Amino acid sequence: QLQASGGGLVQAGASLRLSCAASGRTFITAALAWFRQAPGKEREFVAAISWSGASTSYADSVKGRFTISRDNAKNLVYLQMNSLKPGDTAVYSCAASRSPAISIRIVSYEYWGQGTLVTVSS
Fold first, then answer.
1. For the chain, what is the total number of helices (H) and then of strands (E)?
2. Residue 15 and which of 9, 85, 88, 114 are 20 to 30 A apart at CA?
């Protein structure tokens, strides 16, 4: 089970850190990712991290502003979001893959957590 938290309402330019806690199953050997879905839009890839944390991948729209990290000892994955823009407004969900390698494809992720809403005002 995955549970995301940390969302909220912020102004443009602000920062937020999302957390995703894994319980009931260990995801230490799994790649983890964040996806988001804005109102009226399809779910899109945001960032992914390999099981070891050595490899990461970002969507072009967040590169340089967002940072994904993980703490395998605590079964947590984080998404540090800086310089937020109104276009970042969405429900953010964490996901886990059966594979240790990262992927930007939704179909690569089997386990999904309940999302957390991030709203960025202009």
1. 0, 11
2. 114
The candidate with the shortest Cα–Cα distance to 70, out of 108, 115, 32, is 32
The residue written with tokens 């969900």 in the block is 93
pLDDT of residue 25: 67
Q: Quick: pLDDT tens for 6-34.
A: 999 999 999 999 999 987 666 878 899 99
Per-residue DSSP letter, 106: G
State which H helix or E strand residue 104 sits in. none
**DSSP annotation string for 10-55:** EETT--EEEEEEE-SS--TTS-EEEEEE-TTS--EEEEEE-TTSS-
What is the identity of the amino acid at 55? S
The Cβ of residue 16 has, within 10 Å, a number of other Cβ atoms equal to 20
Could you tell me the two tokens for 33?
A: 């990712």
Q: pLDDT digit string (tens) for 73-90? A: 899 999 999 999 999 999
Q: In this structure, which amino acid lies at residue 99?
A: S
